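Researcher: Here's my situation. A collaborator sent me these components and asked whether they could plausibly form a single complex. I don't have experimental data yet, so a predicted model of the whole assembly would be a useful starting point for our discussion.
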Amino acid sequence: MRTISKLLKLFLILAVFSIPSFALRQNEIEPVMQNKIEKVLAVLKKKESNTVRGQEIIRTMDPVFDYALMAKLALSSKTWGSISSAQQKEFTKLFIARLKQSYLDKLDLYNNQKVIYKGVKPYQKGRLQLQTEVVGKDETYKINYNFHNSKNNGNWLIYDVELAGVSIIQTYRQQFAGLLKEKSFDEILTQLRKNQPLKTKQS
Amino acid sequence: MNARKIFIIAIILSYTNTFADTAIENNSTATSAISSSDVNLTNENNTSITNTTSFEEEFGDTSQTAVFDPFSGYNKFMTNVNDKFYKNIADPIATGYANILPEKARISVNNLFHHLRFPIRLANNLLQFKIKNSAEETGRFVVNTIFGLGGLFDPAKTDLGWERHDEDLGQTLGFYGLPDGPYIVLPILGSSNLRDTVGLVGDTYISPLYSADADNLCYKIPQNTGQDILIASVELINKTSLHLGEYDLIKKDALDLYAFLRDAYTQQRRQKIKE
């Protein structure tokens, strides 16, 4: 009995230390996201250059996104499995840059609209969805953040964002699937490289 | 050895569950969902990218989820025409219009158009048995007519929290199980499909903003095609002025604009029908 409780203690200690410091717990999703979104909106109001604001916004949002998974899902696992690891690496890099730029571009449209937090709801297959609404001039837009339990260690990360009922990952999947019917994967990489919007060093 | 492994896994499971069950309004579904996903722990705790099988199920096989598009030739042509129309006509006019008329006024014009479409929303909410929404729509119409200067303002929403419930005949047909049908790009109006185009014709017939059957339906505002076009143009420019820059962002975002618009439209409509 003593050994069991010892083991248990040891394990709990180990478990606590093995959690990365930024781990987002299930019950923290709403408050942490609310905090982050409000911070992003505050940054938008700052009178600084777009680059500085952009960096600050990306820094705020980075820890909650599972970019690697998003890149893989955007391409579909089938295609992902068919390309070389070098291609996977470059695709992930280009795709993530694209996602970030696209997010920053959208924020340009932001004009003091109110964000309403609708809570975290169970979503597909044990995943969770944070539902928010942005009250626009013409209509109210639903923005949903889909979280999955990353590595099942209780760290919840975003793998998809739905804007007004449109899944970002799904639109990319369809576009890539369509493009792959006409082009080789290398040609797609070239296209991604060409309209590479963020100033990442071309290697 | 094996028993110890199981023991360790059990501890990890109970550990993660202590976090899991403190959260979430819908406790029962959430926790049951959590424990089922925890089972995966045994086979994928060492990869940085999790097993994507269940995600692939969520998004579906792209060859099967692709939008039915037998008219792609015509559709691509019309997407191009609409793109030119937006870039060279609608956008410049709307930009000029936005410079003249303050945003508050344009929002009021927009409110008025929404207000006048009340019969379409009411009919389609009723057809889908959305009784509460139908009642709220009716309440909105009365409140905004009296206290919103005939629909220019939306006190029903701002003061009473009664949201507009957009429903159209396309959604109603979808509600009754009619499939999307082939994707169709309409001139000026853009993305649609066969079901929604049929719905649009039906909605237009009862719309106060279109003169169809004006002799019999006394609430019709325009009395002839000329007036129809005038009203539709004002609405188009006014609406465009409230969404300036958005289309350009979509264009910038899309790897393939045509495929993007087609897929986004289809997803959005399916979501609206579900709601």
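Model: Some features of this prediction you could bring to your collaborator: Residues 65 and 258 of chain B are 16 Å apart (CA to CA). Strands of chain B lie at 183-186, 190-193.
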